[in-house]
Amino acid sequence: MSRYLFLFLFLVVSLPVAAGVGEPRVKTVELRDQTHLSLSLVPDLGVRFLFPFLLDRVDDDIPFTMQLTNSAVFKCDICSSDGFVPGSALRGRNSFIVTAPPQPTSHGNDGAHYAGHLFVSVGGYNLTVALRTTYEVDDHYTDIRFVLSEEARERLIDSMVEQRIEAMRAQHERRLARLDEEVQSRAFQLIGRLALSDPQRRRIRERQEWTTANGETALLMLQEVRTLGSYHLFLYDIRNDGTEPLRVGDASLRVLDPDGAETELETANTPPAPIPPGEIGRGVLVATSDQAIGRDRLRFSLFSGGETVEVKW
Fold first, then answer.
1. Model pLDDT, residue 250
2. DSSP code of residue 252
3. How confident is the model at residue 58 (pLDDT cuts 50, 70, 90)?
4. How far is CA 298 from CA 101, 198, 265, 295, in A?
5. What is the pTM of this model?
6. Residue 269 in contact with residue 234, Cβ under 8 Å?
7. Cα–Cα distance between 72 and 237 in angstroms, integer?
8. Which range is the signal sequence, renumbered to this chain (predicted)?
9. Which of 25, 56, 134, 240 yields a CA-CA distance of 20 to 30 A from 292?
10. Is the per-residue pLDDT at 239 higher than 50?
């Protein structure tokens, strides 16, 4: 009989404690610029700190920092052995856990009590938590859930949007930089291949004199076309017979078919620098279409100071 009575009393005493240990308790705290709170931890149970944002993405200018003043007793799941928090430990997380493992001097409820401070800086918020060990289960919280005021939440959303836009802009610029490097590399390779090839030359020797916008004369001399690979280079000279420097603009090349229809070819023009009086400047128009060296007639047009001078052949 006494044995059954002992078992009954043991269950009566044990059940409330077991229920208390197994029941999570959550404490909600509004996160402010300076947030202070005190927490009691039962050894081995631990407390989790939940934030309303990812710890590694809140503010690039204010990195996440954390310090436990009594790291011999209190432990953190994202800290290394020397107390440092590596960036990889924060990636994709919005929480961390602090525990207080039982110390060698602890013996049930008669064990020693320990204290320390937890300092956290994240996203412009400074958090100070006074920690102490306890053996009273009712004083222990399993989760500390931080929340933001409506105004702070809107600021955070705006900040996140700005950071995302900035990250996308930076990524776009990096891609453009890589693309520029690739284009430049391919351009250098192309220049090298063209330099090793012998150009095919076709003489044109067409001339056309025109009157410039200031009433002076100039002479366009279309000399030849050189073919390097798939590129057709139309070299032209301009003689300035006037008394003022002559500035030349863009140029174009059109194919004239027998029916009278015109097709403008895709080209790129490199005009000469302003040509001093009495001197000759050279430019080049580059086309990639083989129509530029076909049997159809062509018309070369040059634009200068509102005037257009043309050569047909």
1. 93
2. E
3. low
4. 90, 24, 10, 9
5. 0.47
6. no
7. 85
8. 1-19
9. 240
10. yes
- 299 and 312 in contact (C-beta within 8 Å)? yes
Topology adopted by domain 200-312: Immunoglobulin-like (2.60.40)
Within 13 Å of residue 65, how many CA atoms lie on the same side as its CB? Answer: 10
The DSSP symbol for 169 reads H
Distance CA 301, CA 296 (A): 16
Say whether 207 sits in a helix, a strand or coil. Answer: strand
- 230: β partners: none
Apex CA 128: angle with CA 125 and CA 134, to 5°?
145
Q: Are strands 262-264 and 34-41 parallel, antiparallel or unpaired?
A: unpaired
Quick one: pLDDT at residue 61? Answer: 58
Residues 14, 304: Cα–Cα separation, whole Å: 100
Find out whether 231 and 288 touch, Cβ atoms under 8 Å.
yes
Burial (CB count <10 Å: 0-12, 13-18, 19+), residue 199: middle
Burial classification of residue 224, based on how many CB atoms lie within 10 Å of its CB (0-12 exposed, 13-18 middle, 19 or more buried): middle
| pLDDT attached to residue 44 | 87
pLDDT band at 15; cut points 50, 70, 90? very low
Q: Which residues contact 116 (CB under 8 A, 6 or more apart)?
A: 68, 69, 70, 71, 73, 74, 131, 132
User: Where in the chain are the domains?
Assistant: 11-164, 200-312
For residue 11, the one-letter residue type is L
Q: What is the pLDDT of residue 10?
A: 47
